[in-house]
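Narrative progress, year one. The postdoctoral researcher (J.K.) led the effort to move from monomer predictions toward full complexes, under supervision of the PI. The following entry was the first complex the group processed end to end, covering 593 residues in total.
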Amino acid sequence: MHAPVAAAALAEAERATRAADRARRTGAIVTHAILILGVALFALPIWIVLMGSTHDAATVSRGEVPLLPGSEGLANYLTAWGEGSAKTTRAPVSAMMLNSFVMALLITFGKIAISLTSAYAVVFFRFPGRMIAFWSIFITLMLPVEVRIFPTFKVVSDLGLVNTYAGLIVPLIASATATLLFRQFFLTIPDELVEAAKMDGAGPMRFFKDVVLPLSTTNMAALFVIMFVYGWNQYLWPLLITTTGDVETIVIGIVRMLGSEADTDWHIVMATTVMALIPPVAVVILMQRWFVKGLVESEK
Amino acid sequence: MQKRVIFPDKGLPYLLLAPQLAITFVFFFLPAGQAIWFSFLRQDAFGNRTEFVWFENFAELFADPLYLGSIRVTVVFSLAVTVLAMSVALGLAVLADRQIRGATAYKTLLIWPYAIAPAVAAILWIFIFHPQIGLAGRFLNGIGVAWDYKLNGAQALAVVVLASAWKQVSYNFLFFLAGLQSIPRSVLEAAAIDGASEARRFWTIVFPLLSPTTFFLLVINITYAFFDTFGVIDALTKGGPAQATTTLIYRAYIDGRVNLDLGSSSAQSVVLMVAVIALTAVQFRYIERKVHY
């Protein structure tokens, strides 16, 4: 009497489990499908430009929007690299890329260097004016370059730094974000380490070089990614400070390339766009691990 | 704030601080101070007489219909960018969080738009929305919609919003995913055993627990929409057509660079500074309280 009931219940339970499994699997497939669709939608603009950059001028300006590669890729990239867009640019892409690299790298290393030393001073020393120094750095968080563009431009032009690397770079180097991140990290260095170093007769600079710097490499790597992207992508400041082609960056140059639309070399613009976005995207993807950690930590 | 064990040197810390403090003073405090000072001055048309006019520049600014128009554009634009970028990112993060196996791969696939410059993102979107050479632009014109963001203000605003939000989604996604992954699984499993539906679990458990992340991102996204989208607007619409995409930062640029109106552009800088200070203050209040329901 009991056996058949138990068997039926068991079968019923098994059916339910299988149904739940099926439902879960269907759910997983739907989730993946939506995510893949999302990823594809995000990649679509890049794909169009990547494919368009391998076609000739006529195809692109007729508006055919090719979704498959063409045969003019090498020619387009070589033209952009060596000459730029004939009618609208002041410099070839190679020169603008060099300017962008110089700017992004100097901003990055400059920010990391001055933030390391100032965070070290604030954490490991006690001196009059320490809190004032800390707060003056901290408060610059509230003054992004965009809100003080013209007054800052005036200072830079009074110093005669328009159209120079110094004018392009130095005003962007002060960084409250990096200083705060290093300060946070330095506070976690155990006091015993400092004591041991002092007992061994190491001075502050020796301790900085042999203990603090090696311990900070992960933080430096994270900041490198964030600051490189920040430096490479600057727009408003270089737009004001570069009035000739000498120090023009790629991000500025590409917008100038659009010109008045009627005479835009769209295929060259596409090839230039691809080249302009490769360095920062490569840095982010290759250093993803440090970048994500650094981003989430530095903003907290 | 301070370590117990420190180095006794007196001069060295000043030397270490000097580079950062020098740059901060020359390129932050000096210009900010000048902006405040100039915002109270007015130069005559020839630039040879300067007069102290108290708050007249500000009064004129807030009586100027063009400036009020930019405030309206900025509010609509920032809200649209923030809501769009955050809701899409949250949706994707919730889905990616469900797939423990694929989450890392999706993270890599969604992370890279963060690295693209706003101006370059704008150019990518030209090839989607340009009325003659863009994929969607041609399609819309083909089915009879009069699509041209260079002529239609609402369409222009829509395109700059899309391009700006597209770039910001990856940043929001990273933070939402990190937030979701820190929610203890046991709480969600307990609710599931109690029979709470997935939607109910999301709105009564996940969303409240995410609120610190959400508030933080809210401030970051508004700041982004205010300031970092300058490149998007300059590359796509130049503030047009008919000022439809002229945000406050774009107007400050036009008035200073093109119209060379020092008093007015300084007053605008001061207004923007007040806005940033307010946003930062809100952010710190919320972070300190660690918002929870």
